Amino acid sequence: MWDVMTDRQHLIQLLRDRSIKRGHFTLASGKTSDLYIDARVTTMSPEGLALIGPLAIQMLRDAAWRVDAAGGLTLGADPIAYSISQASNSSPPLIRAFTVRKEAKIHGTGKLIEGPFQKGDHVAIVEDVITTGASTLRAIDAVTRAGGHIEGVLALLDRGEGGRTAIENAGYRVMPIIHLTEVVS
């Protein structure tokens, strides 16, 4: 079945099969929903990592975003940023991955951003699932305060619940790889 699907279709099917949960859930935003997308089950799998990186690289290049580094708020953004970075190794220019902590470390260097992020980097903020956009805007704030230039936001999945609009209203472009309507029917 997989051999006749495009990589994007394969990723949609992985999300359907592994990441969609039905029931009663409280989301990170505080909203309640009868649908939970546990994207990490897909993004942390070998198949998901292998699909996400090349798809994201292609989207970034098609959009002509100049990206030195990709990352976002831990934990949802981490595997996506790492897969983008790894995929760039086979398709330069290289893109470094970084992680934005939820709180700055209180020991060691006290960093809020971990990894090879550098002041002046052009950055793609990545997100696994956009709901309200709050975690994305939090990552954007941390990166801009550290001297990064935001090219835009690349999300694995947009729930279509206003988060994309909130991010765009803050002045940032948003590119979802997949929209919720493509995963659930």
Structure explained in plain terms:
By secondary structure, the chain is an alpha/beta fold. The protein has one domain: Rossmann fold (3-Layer(aba) Sandwich), CATH 3.40.50.2020. The chain has helices at 7-19, 40-43, 46-62, 78-90, 134-145, 163-169, 180-183, and strands at residues 20-26, 32-37, 69-73, 96-100, 113-114, 122-130, 149-158, 174-179. The strands form 2 sheets. The chain has a 6-stranded mixed sheet with strand order 5-4-3-6-7-8, with helices on both faces. Strand 7, helix 6 and strand 8 (174-179) form a beta-alpha-beta unit. The longest helix is centred in the N-terminal third of the chain and has 17 residues, at 46-62. It is globular. The mean pLDDT is 93.
List the keywords:
Rossmann fold, alpha/beta, globular, single chain, 38% helix, 8 strands, 27% strand, six-stranded mixed beta sheet, two-stranded antiparallel sheet, 7 helices
Q: What's the gyration radius in Å?
A: 16 Å
Number of helices: 7
The secondary-structure class comes to alpha/beta
Q: How are strands sequenced across the largest beta sheet?
A: 5-4-3-6-7-8
Characterize the biggest β-sheet: 6 strands, mixed
Q: Which CATH first-tier class would you pick?
A: Alpha Beta
Strand content: 25-35%
The SSE string, one letter per element, is: HEEHHEHEEEHEHEH
Tell me the domain tally.
1
Which stretches are poorly predicted, pLDDT < 50 over at least 5 residues? none
What would the CATH topology be?
Rossmann fold
Helix content: 25-40%
- The rough form would be described as globular
